[in-house]
Amino acid sequence: MGKKKQQDEIEHWQKRLLKVQHAYARDGRKAMVVLEGWDAAGKGGLIRRIAAGLDPRPLKVWRIGAPGKEELGAHWLRRFWVKVPGAGEIAIFDRSWYGRVLVERVEGFAKPHEWERAYAEINDWEASLAAEGYRIVKLFLDVTPEEQLDRFRDRYNEPAKRWKLTEDDLRNRERWAEYEAAYADMMARTGTDHAPWVHIDFNSKHKGRIDGFKTIEAALAKGVDLAWPDVSPAIHDFFGS
Question: Does domain 26-224 have CATH number 3.40.50.300?
Answer without folding.
Answer: yes
